[in-house]
Amino acid sequence: MCCNRKCSKPANPAPSLKKICQSCTMPMGKPEDFGTNADTSKNTEYCCHCFQDGKFTEPDLTLEQMTENCSNMMKKMNVPEEKIKQTITFISMAKRWRK
């Protein structure tokens, strides 16, 4: 039943809360996408490419280098330019890069 219990519609299930990496903005939907903490548990903020064993894989990487790396990777994957621009904007808002 729905939330007001006066109709017979099934309640909408909670939307899927897919996480995105707070460094590169890669979608993290599978367990293997998540980075790892020092105690080997999954890190829910950063992906496996950016964060392993409790630390950033490239600790000295700058925002400019990250956006360039991601842009180049997306171009190799034939991602449309508009999507690349959108991703670059999202990267700059990610937790790792906020001042």
Account of the protein in words:
- The protein has 99 residues and is α+β, with helices and mostly antiparallel strands.
- It has one domain (19-97).
- Helices cover 27% and strands 17% of the residues.
- It has two helices and six strands, in the order ββββββαα.
- It has helices at residues 63-76, 81-93, and strands spanning 19-20, 27-28, 34-36, 42-47, 51-52, 55-56.
- It has a two-stranded antiparallel sheet. It has a two-stranded antiparallel sheet with strand order 3-4. A two-stranded antiparallel ribbon has the order 5-6.
- α1 packs antiparallel against α2.
- 16% of the residues are buried.
Radius of gyration: 18 Å
Q: Fraction of residues in helices?
A: 25-40%
Number of strands: 6
Helix/strand/pairing class, anyone? alpha+beta
Strand order of the largest sheet: 1-2
Number of helices: 2
Strand content: 15-25%
Q: What is the end-to-end distance?
A: 46 Å
What is the general shape?
globular
- Uncertain residue ranges: 1-5, 7-16
- Spell out the helices and strands N to C: EEEEEEHH
Number of domains: 1
Main beta sheet, described? 2 strands, antiparallel
Mean pLDDT, as a whole number?
A: 87
